[in-house]
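Quick log. Single chain, no ligands specified.
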Amino acid sequence: MKKIGLLSDTHGYLDPSLEEFFSDCDEVWHAGDIGNQEICDRFEVRQTFRAVYGNIDGTAIRKKFPKHLRFLCEDVDVWITHIGGYPDKYDQSIRDVIRKDPPMLFISGHSHILKVMYDKKLKFLHINPGAAGKSGLHKKITAVRFVIDGMEIKELEVLEKERI
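-> predicted structure:
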């Protein structure tokens, strides 16, 4: 069993409430637009940190993290990418692959809109944690945490707070 913290679109800012929200997580996953290495450093000293780069990330982040990350967590096939879209509206760059070889859990960022949706056609859970940073049109900072236990994804919780 692993407790996962999930965020996206920090754009170089990490609200202190996120570190507290993720304090008992085994792993923290970032779905891109990290912004700077300091964001990664804050988590890497305490937890396993997995990330993908986003469209605003510079060379240093792009050298360290891939565009797409696919791995097993417990018995769940996870795919993380920054620009992925949503069920029935997947980004053209991944549409064919996701239809041919769907994961059990698909995570993307980019939109700054928190969404948790089940893709009924492809039979997997999609999560976009919204935006955890201050840059963008979103009015609230959002992040998600959940538990993966074997093949089960459960106990999903959302952090939502006003952006200052």
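The chain is about 15% helix and 40% strand.
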